[in-house]
Each structure stands twice: as C-alpha cells, then as structure tokens.
Design a protein that fits this description.
D-Maltodextrin-Binding Protein, domain 2, binds prephenic acid, Alpha-Beta Plaits, six-stranded mixed sheet, elongated, 3 domains
C-alpha cells in the first residue's frame, strides 16, 4: 500500500503517520499540500492519504474538511491523535528575528508567544510547518514555527522550546481512501458524515440532530462549512459515536436520507482516543434495537 501525506519530511503529519498501524507495512510519499494528498488519492495515484483534520486549539483544518465535503467522495478508515509541541527554529537569536513562517494552524497555536516575543516580526504562511522550516533554513525567512524534529531535519538551531499557547494541544489526523466498506466495528468507533439541508425549512437542522438524539447517538462534532452556492449556504460536517454496522446508526442514516437534501457518508473508523471513555449510548441499548427489529419481522410475517 502507498500513502501520500502532508510533507515534506519532518511534519507533524509524518510523525502521526508513523503511529498508524496500517502504515507500518506501507510506503509513504510526502506531498506539499493537503489538496495534493487528497487529489492523489482521488486520482488513484496512491492507495491512501493521511492529513490533519482537527486541532484541539483551533478546531477544524478547513482545507481538509472542505475537500471531503465536496469533490469525488473519499472515506475515512482510521485516525491518529498526536500531541503537538512547537519550537521557534532560527539561525538568529529571538531579538534579531524580523520574519517568521509556519502553517496557519500552527501560527494560531503560538499566537500569544508571537505577540509577546516577536510583536514586530512579519508573519508568513507556509503549506506545512516542515516546509516553513526548510524555507527558513534556505534563508527565505529568519525563523519557522515547527516541530522540534523539523528543525533538526533542516539543521536549524532551536531558539525557543514549547512555544505553544496550550501545553496540551493535540491534532487529529485521518487515513482516507476511495470509497470502500468500513473497517470492522470495535465498540469504540466514530462515524463521520456531511449533511446538506433545506435552509428554507424551519427546524431543518433540529430534525438532523433529532435523528441522532432519539436513537441515543452521541454527536461529538458539528461544523458548518460554506457550500459555495452563496452567502448563508452551508453543509454540516458531523462526527458521532458509533459505527455504520450498528442498528441505531443505520436507522439514523436512513432518517437523514429521508429528510436531508443530501447525505455524504465519510466513514466509520476506530477512535484513537483510547484513553477517553466511550460515552454509553443514551437510553436505548443495542438489545432494544434488536428486539424492535425482530418484533417488526414477526408483525410482517404473522401480524402478531
Ligand atoms: O504542518 C505540519 O507539520 C502538519 O502536520 C499540519 C498541522 C495542521 O495543519 O494541523 C498539524 C499539526 C499542527 O497542528 C500544525 C500543523
């Protein structure tokens, strides 16, 4: 199997990919942008892609979600949650730094540090932290905000360690492939999907949330993203606890299929929050769903 991932060598994405079981026996091709990674998967140039999707400090990595919301369908089959710490890498001491670069999501996580220590530095964007480190090493910028291992990879000295505003920051990365059946349920899974609703129908979003709530499915994330049709036109990106194979999830998805303009299934896959407890389904048990299905089958067969 060959992966494409957000490179170059030295990114957090590369570090997270090394933690993905499916990558243990795969080759990995670094690519310069999230779009290129997902486009390579869509074109069949590689078997799988690995990209960041959410950060505990800044929320959604919008380019990833926007690429999953639109375009040819892709599905998520795995995730890795990686703690992230940032350094300021530069040949110059902090007092002499006038330009600094990094990926927008990284810059947002060191906002307070930059305001405090580099208030007059000009901030530049890069496609990844490791790309910023390489461009700083090449002399294009004075400094880069990047992982410690990216500074080491390009031979840049570290002028400051642990510059992130939140010492507990973590980023979630996803393993995406062209549409395929989901991995087997583990009992600790996430199902991701996008719903497109009829904006002009009052309560349309409540109807979506109700399809989960009445079946005891816990929503762990909801993110509205513009569809590009015009101001106020949004798709809703949802993460919820459970697996496509669960009766309750299947019923909820059929309900969404009936009431939404469109539903895009983005995958059921094992959670990597192995330390976090799995909230039990609210109210209804799996046995309740099995009993109701058997009861309906009896009614259809015998009328009683
Ligand atoms: O640029 C990198 O090193 C990446 O892996 C991307 C990315 C991100 O976009 O979230 C990953 C983790 C950090 O939050 C900062 C940047």
């Amino acid at each position: 199997m060959e992966f494409a991932y957000l490179g170059p060598r030295g990114t957090f994405t590369e570090a997270a990919l090394r933690r993905l079981p499916a990558a243990k026996t795969a080759t990995a091709a670094p690519m310069s942008s999230i779009f290129e990674v997902l486009d390579a998967v869509r074109r069949g140039e590689v078997d799988a892609g690995f990209v960041p999707i959410e950060n505990s400090q800044e929320g959604t990595v919008t380019i990833t979600v926007d690429e999953l919301v639109g375009g040819d369908p892709l599905v998520i089959v795995g995730e890795v949650v990686l703690p992230v710490t940032f350094v300021l890498a530069s040949e110059k001491p902090v007092a002499e730094i006038t330009t600094v670069a990094s990926m927008p999501v990284a810059l947002a996580q060191v906002r307070k540090y930059l305001r405090r220590e580099l208030p007059n530095a000009v901030v530049h964007q890069a496609l990844s932290t490791a790309q910023a480190a390489q461009r700083a090493a090449d002399g294009e910028f004075d400094a880069a905000v990047c992982p410690p291992f990216a500074a080491e990879a390009v031979g840049l000295p570290v002028q400051a360690f642990d510059i992130g505003d939140n010492p507990n920051a973590a980023t979630r990365f996803v393993h995406v492939v062209r549409p395929t059946a989901p991995p087997e349920p583990t009992g600790n899974d996430i199902t991701s999907l996008v719903v497109y609703i009829d904006y002009d129908r009052v309560g349309a979003l409540l109807g979506v949330l109700t399809e989960f709530a009445i079946r005891g499915i816990n929503l762990t994330r909801i993110e509205s993203r513009p569809t590009g049709e015009g101001l106020g036109r949004y798709a809703f990106f949802l993460d919820c606890t459970g697996h496509l194979a669960d009766a309750r999830m299947g019923e909820a998805l059929m309900g969404l299929r009936r009431i939404c303009d469109d539903v895009r299934y983005l995958g059921s896959y094992p959670r990597d929050h192995s330390d976090a407890p799995v909230p039990p389904p609210a109210g209804l048990s799996d046995a309740d769903f099995a009993d109701a299905a058997a009861w309906l089958d009896r009614l259809r067969g015998t009328g009683a």
